[in-house]
Amino acid sequence: MAGALQAADALRWSERAIRIDPDTSWPRQTVCRAYLDLADPMAARDAIGASQQDTAGPCLADLALYEGDWRRAAQFAFNTPGVALVGPGILGALSRYASETGDTERVLELLRGPDGEQVETSKALAEGLFEQAFLLVQLYQMRGDRAGRERVLEALWRWLPKAERGEFMHRESYPTRAMLMAWSGRDSEALDELLHWTRRRHSMYWWYVFEHDPTWQHLRSDPRFVEARRLEREYVAGQRTTLETLRRHGAVPVRASKAARSLPGPEGEIVARR
Q1: What DSSP designation does 22 have?
Q2: Cα–Cα distances in Å, from 87 out to 59, 81, 134?
């Protein structure tokens, strides 16, 4: 897999940013997600430490979903302002919440925000809210709203060329073209594209794409999906070995789990509305 900076080296520089400015939240979020990328959730917990929920919520949601606790991840999502509804933990947990409870309306209200504007509008996608748009596709499918689902998919297809020109952050963290093909019913093409995409680059969110993303739920046994997941896991195993070497040499701190005791928790409880 190609990449300008390998995952373990990227983590080393992100840890350095924390040492330089320990009170700023964004380096801790970056490091948290980097440790999840390298299959080290204990270190991810330690990296977040006592960060405030309003700044660490998205990464705490990632951590909760990574560990299989979608309820806790969804609690963070429902306590997150609409403009911050990004990241696989939040969007994945909201999808799972709607699927498990049938309460799609609560999630739709969260996505609409206080002004009631739908996220599939050109304005929203122009701001790069493609994760929310993909969630909306799933919500409309759950509700049996075929017209709404197709409307969002059409908007995403129109948005994709700009995204592939590199106009939006985080787009390459997901196999967006493959996802669009899958949601458009082009399963075989989607799997070919997924495998091709995985061979070209490593996804920081591989754990979401291959373990939690409902896009691939009905395709997980296909040999192409299995091979793509194997490639990601193989890459991560190699980078984890590099990470341990960096730790031994003192280039990356050895993080314990003590800080996990002080992690902020989500407020309130998830109560599905019927």
Answers
A1: T
A2: 8, 13, 12
Buried b (16+ CB within 10 A) or exposed e, 174-189: bbbbbbbbbbbeeeee
Provide the 8-state DSSP code for 2: B
- Spatial separation of the C-alpha atoms in residues 24 and 265, rounded to whole Å: 20
Token pair recorded at residue 48: 């977040």
Which candidate, 245, 215, 64, places its Cα nearest to that of 141?
215
On whether the pTM is more than 0.85, the answer is: yes
Helix residue ranges per DSSP H, 21-171: 25-37, 41-48, 53-66, 70-78, 88-101, 104-112, 122-126, 130-143, 146-164
What backbone phi and psi angles, to 5 degrees, belong to 201? -155, 165
Query: b vs e for 46-68, b when ≥16 Cβ sit within 10 Å of the residue's Cβ?
Result: bbbbebeeebbbbbbbbbbbbee
Tokens 């399963």 — which residue? Answer: 187
Quickly tell me which residue has 């800080």 as its tokens. 259
Selection from 50, 43, 36, 44 nearest residue 7 by Cα: 36
Q: Which helix (H) or strand (E) holds 80?
A: none
Kindly give the confidence (pLDDT) of every residue in the chain, 274 residues in length, as a single tens digit, with 9 standing for 90 and above: 544 568 999 899 989 888 888 877 778 888 999 999 999 999 998 888 755 545 567 888 999 999 999 999 999 899 876 667 888 999 999 999 999 999 999 999 888 876 666 666 666 777 778 888 999 999 999 999 999 999 999 999 999 998 888 766 666 789 999 999 999 999 999 999 999 999 998 989 999 999 999 999 999 999 999 999 999 999 999 999 999 999 999 999 998 655 444 455 555 555 455 4
